[in-house]
Design goal:
The complex is a heterodimer. Chain A is α+β, with helices and mostly antiparallel strands. Chain A is 33% helix and 34% strand. Chain A has one domain (2-83): 2-Layer Sandwich (Mth169, Chain: A). Chain A has two helices and three strands. Chain B is 24% helix and 25% strand. Chain B has a nine-stranded mixed sheet with strand order 2-1-3-4-11-10-9-6-7, with helices on both faces. A two-stranded antiparallel sheet of chain B has the order 5-8. Chain B has six helices and eleven strands. Classes of the chains: A alpha+beta, B alpha/beta. Chain A binds chain B through residues 12, 16-17, 19-20, 23, 68-69, 71, 73-74, and chain B through 57-58, 61-62, 65, 93-94, 100-101, 103-108, 148-150, 153, 182.
């Protein structure tokens, strides 16, 4: 068995309003950065998985995302998995 | 009919529900601990408002996996009655017992105030016996009550008469201004296809005692009681 680390991003679906991101976008003007807009705010999750290979680790992370970490009605996720040496 | 009220770590409306069911409406009520696997014979299970598991990750996301929820899901799947109020509604959506999801309020603010509700479903227990021309005054208290469902689910909800309540003004008109949180179609509460699982963001248990001078919520409980005890 090896240890793998996953880096997961969970983001609000593009089609949905992200009020938090919108508020932060708005404040960019106030701090003198009017060039910046389109802020979207989600979650970054890291975790470790014990698995026999990378493929198995990825499938466990995918299951965790689908069952708990992400609510696919309003969010989407993407992740990368790498072995911890 | 025996009622059960689930207590999660972080529930804060469980006592209000027990008080209304037992002391105001004179029903048989038991509290159900989240770590137990036993519904203690309850026929109708309530999931109360609050901040179960600190609202970590997403409201209701962690509570869904607690031991008692496995029994609640089994009970609902057998046709047993389950109703979630506020955080309870969020938990039922996370558990997929109800369609859709509750997002952050559009204003991003936590909103605590009285709102008006228009009953919609003529076939669901909590609304069937209500006056469809009346605007019911019931308080809300939430930061994540912005109901959303994808296109397919939205179609189903409408087709199957699954909307319990819509936010409206004092005159009973469902306007954009009377929508406190940005909910799709002003939806404040829904039921499942088989009409045995109910969820609503407003708190009828906070509007059910004459001493509070806010009693419209009581009629929602009475609608349920009249039908389940019939």
């Amino acid at each position: 068995m090896s240890t793998f680390k996953a880096e997961i991003d969970v983001m609000p679906l593009e089609a949905l309003l992200d009020p938090q991101g919108k508020a932060v976008s708005g404040s960019m003007k106030n701090l003198g950065l009017p060039e910046i807009g389109g802020v979207r705010i989600g979650k970054h999750i890291t975790l470790q998985v014990e698995a026999k290979d990378k493929k198995t680790a990825e499938s466990k992370v995918d299951e965790a995302c689908k069952k708990l970490l992400c609510n696919e009605i309003m969010e989407y996720y993407k992740f990368s998995v790498s072995e911890v040496k | 009919m025996k009622f059960g009220v689930v207590v999660f770590p972080g529930s804060n409306c469980d006592e209000d529900l027990v008080y209304v069911l037992r002391d105001v409406l004179h029903q048989d009520v038991v509290k159900l601990w989240h770590k137990d696997h036993d519904l203690q014979g309850a026929d109708f299970v309530f999931l109360p408002g609050g901040f179960s598991y600190g609202d970590y990750l997403r409201s209701g996301a962690i509570a869904r996996f607690s031991p008692i929820m496995q029994e609640v899901v089994a009970h609902a799947n057998k046709g047993g009655f389950v109703m979630g109020i506020c955080n309870g509604f969020q938990i039922l959506c996370e558990a997929k017992l109800l369609p859709g999801a509750l997002m952050h309020n559009e204003s991003r603010k936590f909103i605590c105030k009285n709102v008006y509700l228009k009953p919609v479903s003529k076939s669901a227990l909590p609304t069937k016996n209500l006056d469809f021309d009346k605007a019911y005054k019931v308080p809300i208290a939430h930061g994540e009550g912005n109901f959303f469902a994808g296109d397919e689910e939205r179609k189903q909800i409408i087709q199957n008469d699954q909307i319990l309540f819509r936010y409206c003004n004092a005159e009973g008109e469902t306007t954009e201004e009377s929508n406190p949180n940005g909910s799709m179609l002003n939806i404040a509460g829904i039921t499942n296809k088989t009409k045995n699982v109910f969820g609503m963001m407003p708190h009828p248990e906070r509007a059910a005692d004459f001493e509070l001078e806010n009693t419209d919520g009581r009629e929602i409980f009475e609608s349920i009681l009249a039908l389940v005890n019939a």
